[in-house]
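Task 17 of the worksheet. Students: predict the tertiary structure of the chain below and write it out as structure tokens. Keep your answer in the requested format; marks are given for formatting as well as content.
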Amino acid sequence: MPASCSRFRRCLQVFAVLQWVFSFLALAQVCLAVLLLALLGPAWTLGVLYLVWLYGDRGTPQAGGRRSAWVRNWAVWRHFRDYFPISLVKTAELDPSHNYLFGFHPHGVLVIGAFSNFCTEATGFSRTFPGLCPHLLMLPCWFHLPLFRDYIMCSGLVSSAKASAAYLLSRPGGGQVAVLAVGGPLEALEAKPGALSLRIRNQKGFVKLALEHGRGPDPGAPDPAAQPGAGGRTARAVRGEAHGAVRRAQRALWDPGRPAPRPHLGALPPPTSFLLDASVTGEGGIGIKGPFLALVLFCLLFTSLWPFSVLYFAWLFLDRHTPNQGGRRCEWTRNWTVWKHLRDYHPIKLVKTVELPPDRNYVFVSHPHGIMCIGSSCNFATEGTGFSRQFPGIHPSLAVLNLLFYFPVFRDYLMLFGELPAGWEGVPSGLG
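Model answer:
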């Protein structure tokens, strides 16, 4: 029973982290889609009323926000805390009659430590520092996104504009804490275990702001994305698991960009050359998000376009076996020009080292897997490297996770490239 309970708690912790990562990476897009669908459907009046209210409320993120104690005390944040785990250690008394500016370092990739300590009550900030209300400063652009802005303000997030921090530090009566991740987004690109890098030479305005309001900046808590290994400080320490799912995602986001003319965004894999023979090596990948397309299709059920969704689901039921029966490839999609640009970005090459008779079936093994299999996708799911020209008469079918074919619309998109489920039914169909 204890082992079973431990596994259950671990599942809850993983779910808590996944929902937070989803909120960080995709919730803003989902909120925009929901508002757009509302404006295009029968609920358009609610959408218009919200936009009118949004215009009148536009100054709230710079005026202390709109925090919700209920959201900050959600049980999911305690599971989120226990996943790493994260702890808050009090090393000094803070007078609640003053306002404070906390300098949080290092920034990390996802600012997990700052969020857990200052945007939730998982580590008991209000119990540890009674009378103080923390506000984590966030890039102003996030507060221009409808619905999403209201959700993040519930946790105490406010705009990182100078006027926003000045508002908190100038409040009469004290008790306000503005928390700033000092290094900013550029420092996030340098986050890695075992090293600390602080970008502050051209970012010292927060010190001047604190002094103008009669306070000096106070130290904050380390973030797990850049926490040193053994021997790191224990006070205000946030420790991350070396092989956790979030840590692996952070590693994927580390790599700094390369200069123009080939800029590299942090969320993309680093530009790397691949020398490829019949089997392909590659890392990373870019694709349409299956859950997002499924959500859009579901939302259409509540608009005037609901007949299209109903017809699609009926057709989907009849077409459910197609992925395991060879799929439905489309040469036009495989020959899109965008795949040539994807090939040139890394670059990716396919080198023919042996003749393959087209009257046989083959199983190619691609190694290493990489994070998102860009090498395999570019060579076998597209004509970016000219597979059909080098191996005429052979039709490649890339085997991917079965789970991806349960997402409506997205499954059809995958099949256009000749992709099949990697199960015991899908692979034999590709060899038949």
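Marker's comment: Residues 2-251 form one domain. The first strand starts at residue 100 and ends at 104.
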